[in-house]
Amino acid sequence: MTDKKAANKRIEGDYQEPEYISIVVSDPTRVDEFISYKITTSTTFPEYKEREFTVRRRYKEFVVLREHLKHKLSEKPKAIKFGELAPLPGNNLSSLFGQGRFEAEFIEERRKGLEQFLNSVANHNFFRFVPFLHRFLQEKDVNFL
């Protein structure tokens, strides 16, 4: 790290702000025939352009993200030593078809699972550095389908 970068991270004296990332999934909103979720990220990780940002994503985009991360892991099998890829909250037939997927209890359980998934991969020692994850969390006008 250059002296300039180190100086930017110092807050007081020799104290250096620790690196962290925290992701909150909130505000599930029905849009036509799907639910979109607000994703708010706060971080000091240098891989990100800003310290706080918000995007909206739908479940299918989370599926695309997980598949991409799974593929990246298959390219570097030794990365499994850092831990496995977290699962997405499951689907069940009653929620996939019909009105079950729009019930408040189902949406809340899915929201919690998506938040847990994102925090797991964003704090993972391998997935943390995958540019696709950075774009997923930061870029507002990108459709990942």
Automatic annotation (TrEMBL):
Pfam families to which the protein is assigned, alphabetical? PX
This entry carries the following GO cellular component terms, namely: endosome
Q: List, for all copies, the residue spans of the domain called PX.
A: 15-145
The UniProt entry, under InterPro entries, shows: PX_dom, PX_dom_sf
Q: Which is one GO molecular function term here?
A: phosphatidylinositol binding
PANTHER family, sorted? FI18122P1, SORTING NEXIN
What is the protein's given name?
A: PX domain-containing protein
